Structures are given as C-alpha cells and as structure tokens.
Fold this protein.
Amino acid sequence: LPAYVFESGSDLARHVAHIVAGIIRERNALGQNAVLGLPTGSTPVGVYRELARMHQEEGLDLSGVITFNLDEYYGLTPDQLQSYHRWMHEQFFSKVNVRKENIYIPRGDVPLSRIDAYCREYEGEIERAGGIDLMILGIGGNGHIGFNEPFSVRNSRTRLCTLDPVTRRAAASDFFGEWNVPTQAITLGLGTIFDARKILLLALGEHKAGIIKELTEGAITPRVPASYLQEHGDAAVLVDAAAASKLT
Ligand code: F6R
C-alpha cells in the first residue's frame, strides 16, 4: 500500500483538495457527475476548507458533484448537534455549491424496522450515480474505516453496526461523556467502500502513527479492516510527518 508523507497537515490537505478538484473539473468538462465518498472527523477538515477556498476564490464548480457520506450515528436526527449531517453542513456543504438533492448522508433516525431496506436504498443510490469515483477515508486508532470496526466482514454492505468501545471513547468529548455516545451507527460496508474506483486514506497526528505502521507494513488481517485496502488496485495512504513517525 503506497504511503505518501507530507510535512504538515495543511500540505496534505492542499494536495488532496487538488486531486479532488482535478476529478471534479475533468467530469465537469465531460458534462458528467463526479461522485465522491466523504468522511467526517478531524482528519478531513483541512481538505474541506481548501475545497471551499477553491470554490470561493477560484470558481471551482461543484454543482455537478454527487456526494455519499460514509456513516452516521444511529439514533440521531439530522439537526442534532453531534450528527454527521450537521457536521457536513457546517464544515463543507454550507460553503460550496453541491446541490441539496445530490447530497447523500445516511439518516440516523430511520426506524429499526426500515433499516435493512433503507441501507439497500442507499446502495442503490450509489449504483444509480454510477459508483464512487473517489472515496476519501480517515482511519480509527483501531483500524476502522467508516464505522467498519475490527472483524467486520470483508464483503459487507451498508448496514447498522455496533461501535467498538475504543470508537465510543474517542467520540466521548463530542458527546459530553462516553455514556452519551450512541452504541450503533449506519456505515457503508467494506465491500461498498472497496467498490470505489480510487481510495485515499488520510491520517494526521502522532496518535495515528501506530495504526499507520500496522496498515502499511503489516499483513492483511480482519483485526485491521483498513488493511484490506492492500488488495485494492488504486488505494493510497497519505499522512503527515507525525502519523508517519513509526514507519521504518
Ligand atoms: C467518520 C469516519 C471514521 C473516521 C475515523 C477517524 O465519518 O468514517 O472512520 O474517519 O474515526 O476520525 P478522526 O479523523 O476524527 O480521527
């Protein structure tokens, strides 16, 4: 799995935004939609900021972009403070011109009885869009991507999943205490993620150095769901110097 090391998080963000913008412009020129898979969390913030800048200052046109977010906490309504709907709106969608009808984020308030059908519909929308051109990923300290926790099935599709205690602990401050963190989420499956034509996994900071070492130098193992990326034909890992600090 190729790993590219950047001096700083902002260098990395500029580089990734440049790749995203390239795909968007290429598709715009052909009159086609660019289809992006998007994460939330601290890692992609700089990328969204840079894309918003490119939109505002350089006229990058996102009106043809279709986006699919990776995940959402189960039990949260879209307007709730910690929901990924709200986060995406504040960090990105409020600053660019992606059309409302082209934004897909799993809803956390779907009744349990409808979940399976809802997840199948979400997959159907991805297919209808023509599949994901570029999937941007962060990684959990335990190796999760989306909310596919360790030992998630390699071919899993979009579904309701249970959050690992490690993941709930990492989210504790957002929810004012670990006990408030939802226990479940809706996530794109590993199989769904690996269907993307191109995948960029980003990691920033020293606290990711251990898992980045395992991911790029270790074997493929169900214990580290991101390690399956080694089997993808067009996946790369982009890290800052701190996240690369344990690489040999
Ligand atoms: C969020 C997501 C998660 C995060 C991961 C890293 O949509 O899919 O897999 O990418 O938990 O989170 P941060 O970037 O906050 O360290």
Notes: The pocket of fructose -6-phosphate is lined by residues 39-43, 70-71, 138-140, 144-146 (CB under 6 Å). The mean pLDDT is 98.
